[in-house]
Amino acid sequence: MRTKLTVVAAASAVSIAFAAPAAAQNVTILGGGIKGGAYQLAVGLSKVLKEGAGMSATPQSAKGMVGQARILQKGDADFAFGLGGPIGAWAYAGEGRFEKEGPKKNLRGVLAYPAGMFQWLALEDSGIKKLSDLKGKRVSVGSAASTTQTFARFFLPAHGLNKGAYKEMTPGFSGGFGALRDRNVDAHLTVGKPPMSAVQELTALKKIRLVDMDAAAVADVVKKYGPGLSAATIAPDAYGANQSNTAPVNTVGIFFGFSTSTATSADTVYRVTRTMFENLDAFHKTTKVAKSISLAGACKGLALPLHEGARKYYAEVGKSC
Assign residue 310 a region: left if phi > 0, alpha if psi is -120 to 50, beta otherwise? Predict the structure, then answer.
């Protein structure tokens, strides 16, 4: 299925009133696995919101973008780091992974950012060098309903490995690293900007190899499921001496988003957006992942209609989205 990502700007015939911010306010920010970049962003922004605006923000772990879309649609959280790119667009349109459950028209975007690259990991002595070597192997795809599970189901068939050709396992983000370390799986898929701390923790104990994707298969996946995706490579020494690659590793890069829903008020989204960008240096210092977020690039790669609160802030600073 070829999916087109379109950002539908929801026009409103009525003006939106933005109330003065309350002295204290509570918001919930979803991330992914607790060692992943999205969760680190949720923690970092929670700190910035508390120090910069007196807001009480609670970071919470969620099982990837698919789970985040469902939670935000129900109004059970205010924001999510991660949801965006192809999965965000599919959720809004009711396509791809969301075809059976229908469109989630309450979802809205705040900003987009380049999240990094998909990284297939195997132990160096496993003999696994390329993705087609996973035939008959136990493959960790992270959590059920996660971004990595969703894309593993695209990447593996693109390399001739359809359902049944390998054993899919879902031990979670952190659990996947532990399972690979303990040899309970043969490969683990994660996503982030290298060098990822979770991968570095693994390489402190084991010698690993980043599993190479076929360049033609990468191009096919990007064409079929992008935009929001791009062909990318990871350096053979991204993780130092305990990474055994000798050449750049082919993979796929992806945009993520900072997203919300219509259940979150325009005032709250405006206040969070303004506080984030007015304290961007402080936010960047909370985690290296945050350096991917910038005002200049905030509207590049948006997968969801922009929330009114974010639109108000961007208009104030002269940015057109």
Answer: alpha
User: How many CB atoms sit inside 10 A of residue 8's CB?
Assistant: 12
Using a 10 angstrom Cβ sphere, with 0-12 exposed, 13-18 middle and 19 or more buried, the burial of residue 285 is middle
Inter-residue contact 99 to 111 (CB < 8 Å): no
Residue position matching structure tokens 């996503």: 191
Give the total residue count for the chain: 321
What the block records as the tokens of 103 is 């469109």
- pLDDT tens digits for the chain (321 residues)? 444 343 333 333 333 334 434 445 899 999 988 888 899 999 999 999 999 999 999 999 987 899 999 999 999 999 999 999 999 999 999 998 899 999 999 999 999 999 899 999 999 999 999 999 999 999 999 999 888 999 999 999 999 999 999 999 999 999 999 999 999 999 999 998 899 999 999 999 999 999 999 999 999 999 998 778 999 999 999 999 999 999 999 999 999 999 999 999 999 999 999 999 999 999 999 999 999 999 999 998 899 999 999 999 999 999 999
Integer angstrom CA distances of residue 105 from 90, 94, 150, 263: 11, 9, 21, 11
Q: What is the dihedral of CA 72, 192, 298, 146, to 10 degrees?
A: -20
The rounded Cα 192 to chain-centroid distance in angstroms is: 8
Asked if residues 147 and 66 have their Cβ atoms less than 8 Å apart, the reply is yes
Query: Do residues 268 and 310 touch, judged by C-beta distance below 8 A?
Result: no
Q: What pTM value is reported for the model?
A: 0.79
Cβ neighbours of 46 (radius 10 Å): 21
> The tokens of 47 are what?
């700190």
